[in-house]
């Protein structure tokens, strides 16, 4: 059964509490011994004002704390020995809102002000004045209100922490599931689609070499294989990308070069050929290759210069990154995750990748990414 529809709105509850406390104070104050004349009216107004001020305890707990404290001191000076219930409720609200230090300071000040007020405005010995001040605000009630507010504040904080932990756990499980789906897709689909693509391209090549007319169905299979490979690659990238930011492409390569310069490298970018429309999957792969190559250069190569070349060809996009680091032809590149990731991306697009030391010294990364054209 859904009980949420029967929940009392917070504003209605605040007004109900404020009116109840104001009525309780007026009833208790006017039913006992009280002064006559204007002092009685002034005290009654302060009793009502202290209770009604609780309407704003959620929005302005510190202001309500100050108003109820002044009202308590005022009606105590007017001769009303009534427990400062509004102030106790205000203490509870302020501590619940996290204002513990201010609440303690205000309470200590009020505990000092009340006896002084009784001594100044009441006749009789000091003992009676202190007794009257205790009737307005008992330390035990004050501690109880403070403890109740702190207990609820801690409970709410634990509930928020538990909710945040649940969200983080759910997000982590979702990320793990995305990676699992990506691996399943890669294992079950990529190999088969690659076979279809290669077989169709071989058949088309053989038919054209023999001078035969290529069947339209075979051309359709070839085109579908290319599109399926590209779309599958894009899908895998989306599933495996943990970053929520938009995917990067060739337009963002200059930013990578600028970052390399900021890290102290003499980095240069060269664009060869005429820019043309490049499939998004190819652009993302080129960006990741340059990013990984520049990162490796900055971290491991001990290089001073690095050159990035992007070459637009009629049927492919060439990416090359060369540095003058410490690598020599005798050094075999370590098969780290970055190199494996680059090779996987290039292979999935049907391209070729070379990552090896240069002649003399330095390291080169060269990738050739096919760009499909209409037949």
Describe what you observe in this structure.
The chain has helices at residues 10-31, 38-52, 61-77, 85-96, 100-121, 126-136, 139-209, 216-240, 253-262, 280-301, 337-348; strands at 266-272, 305-312, 316-323, 352-357, 363-370. With 375 residues, the chain is of the alpha+beta class. A 5-stranded mixed β-sheet has the order 1-2-3-5-4, with helices on one face. A hairpin with a 3-residue loop joins strand 2 (305-312) and strand 3. The mean pLDDT is 79.
Name the quaternary structure: single chain
What are the low-pLDDT stretches, counting only 5+ consecutive residues below 50?
none
Termini separation (Å)? 64 Å
Kindly estimate the percentage of residues that lie in beta strands according to DSSP: 5-15%
Shape: elongated
Rg is 39 Å
Number of helices, where a helix is a run of at least 4 consecutive DSSP H or I residues? 11
The ordered string of helix (H) and strand (E) elements is: HHHHHHHHHEHEEHEE
Strand order in the sheet with the most strands:
1-2-3-5-4
Topology diagram in text:
Blueprint: H1 10-31, H2 38-52, H3 61-77, H4 85-96, H5 100-121, H6 126-136, H7 139-209, H8 216-240, H9 253-262, E1 266-272, H10 280-301, E2 305-312, E3 316-323, H11 337-348, E4 352-357, E5 363-370
Parallel strand pairs: 1-2
Antiparallel strand pairs: 2-3, 3-5, 4-5
Helix pairs in contact: 1-2, 2-3, 3-4, 3-5, 4-7, 5-6, 5-7, 7-8, 9-10, 10-11
């Amino acid at each position: 059964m859904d009980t949420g529809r029967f929940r009392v709105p917070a504003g209605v509850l605040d007004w109900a509490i404020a009116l109840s406390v104001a009525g309780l104070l007026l009833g208790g104050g006017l039913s006992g011994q009280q002064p006559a004349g204007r002092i009685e009216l002034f005290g009654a107004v302060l009793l009502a004002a202290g209770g009604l001020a609780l309407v704003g305890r959620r929005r302005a707990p510190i202001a309500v704390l100050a108003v109820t404290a002044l009202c308590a001191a005022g009606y105590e000076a007017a001769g009303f020995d009534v427990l400062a219930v509004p102030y106790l409720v205000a203490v509870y609200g302020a501590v619940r809102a996290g204002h513990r230090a201010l609440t303690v300071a205000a309470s200590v000040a009020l505990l000092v002000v009340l006896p002084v007020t009784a001594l100044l405005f009441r006749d009789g010995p000091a003992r009676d004045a202190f007794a009257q001040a205790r009737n307005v605000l008992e330390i035990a009630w004050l501690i109880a209100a403070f403890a109740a507010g702190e207990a609820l504040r801690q409970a709410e904080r634990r509930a928020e922490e538990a909710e945040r932990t649940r969200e983080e756990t759910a997000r982590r499980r979702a990320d793990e599931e995305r990676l699992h789906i990506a691996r399943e897709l890669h294992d079950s689909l990529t190999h088969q689609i690659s076979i279809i693509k290669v077989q169709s391209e071989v058949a088309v090549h053989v038919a054209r070499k023999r001078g035969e007319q290529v069947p339209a169905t075979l051309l359709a299979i070839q085109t579908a294989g290319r599109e399926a490979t590209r779309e599958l690659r894009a899908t895998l990238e989306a599933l495996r990308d943990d970053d929520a930011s938009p995917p990067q492409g060739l337009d963002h390569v200059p930013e990578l070069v600028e970052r390399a310069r900021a890290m102290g490298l003499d980095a240069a970018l060269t664009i060869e050929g005429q820019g043309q429309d490049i499939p998004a999957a190819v652009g993302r792969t080129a960006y990741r290759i340059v990013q990984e190559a520049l990162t490796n250069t900055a971290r491991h190569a001990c290089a001073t210069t690095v050159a990035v070349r992007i070459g637009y060809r009629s049927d492919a996009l060439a990416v090359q990154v060369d540095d003058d680091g410490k690598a020599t032809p005798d050094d075999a590149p370590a098969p780290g995750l970055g190199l494996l990731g680059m090779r996987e991306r290039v292979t999935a697009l049907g391209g070729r990748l070379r990552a090896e030391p240069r002649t003399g010294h330095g390291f080169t990364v060269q990738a050739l990414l096919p760009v499909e054209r209409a037949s």
